Each structure stands twice: as structure tokens, then as C-alpha cells.
Fold this sequence. Notes:
The chain has 30 helices and 11 strands. The longest helix is centred in the first third of the chain and has 25 residues, at about 20-45. The radius of gyration is 39 Å and the shape is elongated. The protein starts with a helix and ends in a 17-residue tail after the last helix. Helix 8 runs antiparallel to helix 9 (about 165-180) and helix 19 (about 385-405) packs across helix 20. The chain folds into 5 domains: about 5-220, no CATH class; about 230-345; about 350-420, Helicase, Ruva Protein, domain 3; about 445-605, Rossmann fold, CATH 3.40.50.300; about 610-699, Helicase, Ruva Protein, domain 3.
Amino acid sequence: MFGFSDYFDKEKENIGFENGREEIKTHLLLLDLLLEHYLDEKTNSSEGLIFSRGMKMTEAEVESYYMAPPADRKSTGYTEAFAGDVNKAFTFIEKRTKATASEVFLPVREMGRRLDLDRDESLAAVLSFAGEYDLKYTRIFGYIAAEPSMQYPTLGVYRALYETFAPERADEVTARIFGSGSRLLKLVFDREALSEKKRPYLHTPLVLQQDLRDFLYEGDGCGEEKEVYLPASYEEKTKELLKAETSEGRFFYLECEDASDAETVLSYLEKGRDLCLIRDKEDVRGQLLRSLLYRRRLLVRSRDSETIIEILEEAGEAEQIWIFGSEEMPKALLQETAGRPVIPFTLSLPTPQERFSIWKHYVEAESLTIGEDVSLEDIADTFDFSLTKIREIIGQLKLKAVTEATGTVSRHMIRQVLFRYNEAQFNGLATRVHTAYTWDDIEIDAAQKQKLTIACDRYRLRGRIDAKYKVAANNAYGNGVSVLLYGSPGTGKTMASQVVANELGLPLYRVDVSQIFSKYIGETQKNLGKIFDEAKKANVILFFDEADALFSKRTDVGDSNDRYANAETAYLLQKIEEHNGMTILATNLYHNFDSAFVRRITYTVRLDSPDEATRLRLWQHTLPESMPVAPDVDFEFLAETFELSGSNIKAILHTAAYMAGAKDATVTMRDLVMALKMELEKLGRIIDATDFANYGVYL
């Protein structure tokens, strides 16, 4: 039988390991010493048969177990000499480990340090790893466990080996390491393998978690460091977080509008390496092991308070635990958790200046060429996206630039990508409006256009102006912009809202007033709250058409209905003021508006019926150039004779165009007169042929 001196070189006892491979092989030498002794004892009592037929007991094996009186029976193979050899081996490994420089990575040493394992626990982990390192061990484990198909060591194998050198401690060690609630079972071994209920207790397979296997094989890798870019305020926040970790406590909650930004900030604290992120209760054990092995913060993504508390109770081994979510910290976490308070931190969205720096950084990092019609400053000011979302958008822009082979990112391309990120879910309360019109399409006077331009500039530049001059510093409400468009039907209110949306590059959503009103108390306010909340999340323009139905004058309180109606109007005024986005309202009945509401609107723009000169431009330029028009069409006569709104003129021209198109012909004066007649009939006007002068013959 071989002993300590046959396995270990005494002259190396005080010489450190050269590398992690040598350390693991030395630990396996100790395992070989234990296995050889156990197998030698077993074969001596089994007629030398290493593999008994079918793993059945032979007569010799039965006799070896029961030949001595019960009080003297020993089946462990324990001898004082062998126990001394094992202790020498443990001491040899400990001395060599201690003599190894700290900069040399020794996986077994680091596993023990980081998971706080004692000698017995480390032996269990090495035993479980042996079959991963050398397949010869799997056959030996199957033999010892009396189950040839078993590829992993079992609890019984560990106990059998332990009894060969310390039988008096075997029960205590087995119960401590593998008993119910064992820390080692919780951290080191695979939960699915341990949960097999059909096997006897001692046949429980000991399978290392994958992360621990990787750690012992590959060392302290856990991914390469990745660049993490943070704007200034986020960097300041990381300093606060680091300070809190070292002085204030153990559990922290990071509140933010975009939970992904919390991951980015915490990744920055980890120098860009992989995070130990728990998303549900099933992730706890694996991620806790990663957290301890790779010295990473343990992160819990907020779902619900009960789940979070369960996770925190199970993950009690971690030094610091960061919880984060897109909402405020749940009230249930305000109480102490596991004896420690949960400390909240707020991570605000980047400022417009910071958003510009993020856009600029990632555009340069991705080597994108931005077109001359694109202003990153305007985009950063208009779209209050999170850091993570901006990074995702730029990734999509790069992909789009490659697939379209343009080489340059245009305004149109950016709008296509941004609109996908700005899709709102109003659940029938509002619908998306296709914005086809620009300044070139709308015919309004200079004063009207100037007001709309000022409104657009205010919204587009508000972040930069406020940062420079602190204009909104004392504003108790939101920093949004609201515009009331009023005038007779057909004067271009809807068109003007589309022009504004196009100018700002924002999606336009028309609020369905009929879906907002409810006969049930509080439901109207609830619907309005949903609309404004969704608009805030999605960065869209809200367009309230026929807004007088919602914003009408408040009435004297005669009954409960009046009181509730007034409450709804007051609530709507409040939401308008608090909203940081753009809101456009349109009405034909300006005099019906509550004066208190009008005072709170940022801009009011009156759109009058077009004068003769404007009507002429509308007649001449509404149809696309591709639509052929006869040269003798008398647009001057139509503009001078018929006082129509812009929408009426557009409707007449489109009707005439379709009439001509059906004949595959040019638009003629006859087509226009017939279309004009139909439009006047629709408006309920009396038609007199003399009004059409010489063109009355076409009626």
C-alpha cells in the first residue's frame, strides 16, 4: 500500500505552486491517496474482484462485513497510520498554498477564500470536480457507489472516503456540509441534481454548478472589460453609490425611469464586466455563486415586493445587493429587510446636454456619418430618451445604414428608427395620425406661421435654453408646450398640427374624445391619466381635435353631475400643465373655452379663412405636379368668386383629379365645376348658375 511519501515530494513543502493547474493536480493527489486506500481495503475483502458481477455482494464480502463481533466491526479501512498520512497531505497542500505569491491565481485557494469554505468543504468540491478533470474518476465513483451508471461522486462516496481517515467525525461533517439548509449545498452544487427524490440519501449526486466548474477550469475570467460610457451626472451618481456601499448599508434600491440605465450604471461600477443579475427566484443560487466567486455586486431586478423579499432572504451571503426598477421603491421594502434597511437612490434621465453627449459619443464610436439635415442637438433636446435607449437606437441606425448602403444617416432615416421607439399603446384612447404636411403645404399668413414657428423652437430648444439661463428654474409645473388652434372649419387646424409634428420629428396621436368620457365617476380622469402617462413614456404629440368638448366652460354647480364635470375639467387643466411634452388642441368654437384654461395654454393661434390671394395659391398648388391640368383652367376666377376654406378647395381638387383620372384625361374646368357643385351641395349652399358666369354651362 502506498502512503504520503509516494504521492508528495517533501522537498516542495515550502515551495509555492507555479500555477493553478499544479495546485489542482496536487489536490487530486490527495484524492488519489484516499481512493487508493479505500479501493485496496475493499478489494482485499472482496476476493480481489474490483468489479463484482452485477455489483452483487459475494460471500467473501458478506463475511468481511460480519466476521467480527458487532462491537468490533470496521468497514472503513481506518488506521492511525493512514490517518496520519492524510493529515500530512492536507498540511503539505496548505503550506504550498501559503507559500504561493498572491498574484498567482490558484483556483482551489480562491474558491475557498471567496466562498468561505473550510477544509472539509473544499475536499467535497474537489471530489466533485475530479470527474470533470479526468474521466478515470467517474468509473471509480460508480464502483464505490455500487452503481456503474453513476458519473458523479455521491454523498455516500464522500462519506466513505472521509471514514478512512476520520471515522469519528464522519457523521458530524456529513450532517454539517450536506444537511438541510446547508450553505455548501446552496452555493456549490447543482440544485436539479440534489433535488432527485427517488435516490437513497447517500446516493445523492454531487454535481458542481456550471459557474464553479468554469471557475476551476478557466480561472478568474468572467468576461472581458467592456467600455461603459456615462454622462457627467451618472458618473456623479456612481460616486454616491460607491460611498454608500462602503458606509451606509447592505441593501440598496435604484429608482429610474428606464431600468436598463440602472444596469448600465451598475455595470460601470463593475468596470464593464458581466453582472450577477437576478430576474426571478430561480436565478438566486447560480447568480449568488457568481457574485461571490467573481466578486461582483448582486443585482435584483424589481418585479414585486414579495418576490424581492424572498430573493433577499435567500441571497443573504452577498456583501451588497442592489435592487432596481423603473418605479419607486415598493413600500414593503421601506421596512428593514433581513435586519438592514433598504436605502433608495434616484437615477434621473440624462439632461438634454448629457443626451447630446451620449448621441455624439456613440455616433463617433460606431463611425456613423450624419447628414447635413440632421441636428443631434435638436434630437437630444426633443427626445428625452434614456442612455440605454439612445445606445440601442444608434445600433439600429448603424444596421439601417449598412442594409440601405447609404453611407450617411439622414433625417428621414433617423425619424423611421425613432418612431419605432416612440410607438405608444393608448388602447383605443388615441390613434396615430400620418403626418404628410410640411411648411410648404400649408397656406397661412406670416403672423400665424411665426407663432407656430416660435412654439416649435421653444419645444426644440427648451432644454438648452433652460440649462443656460435657468428660465424654468422656478416653474412649479411641467416644461411642456401647449398650442390652441382655433378658427372656422376647414381653415387648416389639423394640417397645422401635422406640420408641427413634422417640424419636430415627433409622432402625432389624435385623442378620441368619445372614448375618454365615461358615465362612471372617476373613469374620465382615469382615461386622461392613461393618455398623458403613455404620451410621456413614448415622446409623442397629443392632438385633441374638437377640444371644446373636453375644455368647455365650467358651469355653476346645480347637481352632482355639474360638480363631476367641473372636476374633470380641473383635472385636465392640471394634466396639461404638468405634461412635459407637446399638446395641440383644435376647436371651431373658441368662445366655448373656459377662460381659466385659455390662460394656461402656452400659445393660441387663430387660423382664419383664406383670403383671395391665399385661395389662389391653394387652387394652383394643392394638386401634385404629376397631375396634368388643362392650361385653360381658370383658377383666378374660382379664387375670386368662391370664398371657400382650404379643406374645401382640397376636397374639390381631389374630386376633380379622380374624375379626370377615371377617364385617363387631364383635369379640365368642367371637372372642377362639377366637383365644386358637389362640394357646395355638401355644405348646404344654394347653387345659382349665374355664380359660375360663363362656366355655368358645365353644371
